[in-house]
Amino acid sequence: MSKAPTIMLVKNRALGDSIMGLSAVQYLKLLYPQSNIIYAVPQWIAPLYSESVTSADEIYPLRILTFKDILKLFKDIKALKVDHIHEMHQSGRGAKIFKMISFFLRIPYTAHNHHLKTGTEVLDQGVIKPLIQRDLDGVYSFLGIGERPNYLEYSPQINPIEKISKLPMIIMGVVATRKTKMWPLENYLKLASLIQVKFPNYAIVIPLSKGPDDKKIKEELFRIGLPDNVSILESELKDLPANIKQAAFYIGNDTGLKHLAVAVGIKTYTFFGPEPANEWHPYDSNNHPYFYLEGLACRTRTHHYCGLSVCDLSEGYMQCLSYFKPEIVFSEIENYMYGFSPLM
Asked: How many domains does the chain have?
């Protein structure tokens, strides 16, 4: 590899995956501080980084839906003089497109397909591990030197450009990619009421998008009845890092918003239902504790996690999350709330 290469790291996945991928960017930048690292993420996610600083030298808005998109990608990679393309969490479509581009431009293309059990150059291919470690091992296998990186030393970082004032504010992350990952909305509002009684100075903010799924959640929250200390935030993606960084902490489902909270440097409390935290929560549990009920047989009927979108149990319906009553959760967070002191 040249002394100052231009490397494109690709993470064409969901919001949370995109944020976790920043850890690999940080690792690579530490190895090659003079390099130019282009981080390619889905086009709709790219605005998240537009008002913030990351370890990437450039964020590339990736779109590969049409031939026109692919042609533009080809021309852009050529113009950017990319020396190496590495795809994290490789997808079938991405593999075909990037292999083709690398062939015609004669630049190396490497990738980590974590679905494969064996047969690649990636260290510990097929081993179940924390997601950030998986990304790091993929990059390390093809571009790394020296000691293998540890995921706990490379937590993702997103730093808003504007100066942020800390507030006695709590971010509640009530959305998720499927229902089985969602702590009940009623529980969030009950928890908000408990907080209001003991900590009336705290404001609670629930960020929601303007999409149809979040619109339904908003309607349901108002139907249940929002306590006076709760407000809905419909923020542009670019403004989210600054909005989240103001808060004392995040509490909510395991979703992209949680990973963003970690990346901007606030404490998090996460609810885990169908998926094991050791894989999907690649963070120090002292700084980022979580609620997870061990030993549920229903969770591992077909895989090492439950992939259902809707719980199919008649007895024990959603037992993985319903076990954690608002009173239990409140008892876990109140000591931290006592000790929180807003700082500039």
From this structure: 2
